[in-house]
User: Which sequence fits this backbone?
């Protein structure tokens, strides 16, 4: 199966699972504050595979991390009733990374790239939704504004209210889809315990694609 189609299907499947988890019968209104815990499952793909399959690999600096948004044009929370069942929006946030150095042949990449991540933003412990409902996800992405990183991403489709939207998306688990520069100037996957490598070594590995 084509990798892009497979990743696209994964995102859409995840949306279906989230909607199913968040749905509630409209005849049973919220009687007290409640929360929904979101968990996302990603394919078990090695870091070498992520590196080789990425559509874009670039080195840059984290410029911004947005607050949590919801999957419609306005970014606001939404609910929609279908056959007596109330469906809730899908949360996501965006990371903007400057394009300091393109490490893979890529066209149409500007001075920065915005990556979409499912879940609530790392700096938010819970995001309020309608009727006192709080949405919480495991937002443990170890990134901060100013971090120097190498990211591995692919363009795919995110399920959107009344359709879909093309986005740049990490190659599988976001935590394992970037390398961060340490104080020694070397790049490692956070928490991997791997030895750090230079930009030159990363570029050399990509040349073997």
Assistant:
């Amino acid at each position: 199966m084509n990798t892009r189609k497979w990743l696209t299907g994964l995102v859409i499947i995840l949306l279906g699972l989230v909607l199913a988890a968040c749905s509630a019968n409209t005849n049973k209104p919220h009687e007290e504050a409640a929360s929904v815990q979101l968990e996302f499952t990603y394919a078990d793909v090695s870091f070498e595979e992520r590196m080789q399959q990425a559509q874009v690999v670039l080195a840059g600096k984290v410029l911004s991390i947005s607050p949590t948004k919801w999957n419609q044009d306005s970014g606001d929370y939404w609910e929609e009733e279908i056959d007596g069942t109330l469906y809730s929006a899908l949360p996501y946030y965006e990371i903007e990374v400057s394009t300091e150095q393109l490490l893979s042949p890529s066209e149409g990449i500007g001075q920065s790239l915005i990556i979409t991540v499912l879940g609530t933003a790392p700096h938010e412990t819970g995001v309020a939704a309608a009727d006192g409902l709080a949405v919480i996800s495991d937002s443990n992405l170890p990134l901060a504004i100013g971090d120097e990183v190498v990211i591995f991403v692919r363009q795919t489709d995110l399920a959107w209210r009344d359709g879909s939207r093309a986005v740049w998306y990490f190659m599988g688990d976001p935590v394992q889809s970037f390398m961060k520069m340490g104080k020694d100037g070397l790049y490692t996957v956070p928490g991997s315990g791997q030895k750090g490598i230079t930009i030159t070594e990363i570029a050399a590995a990509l040349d073997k694609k």
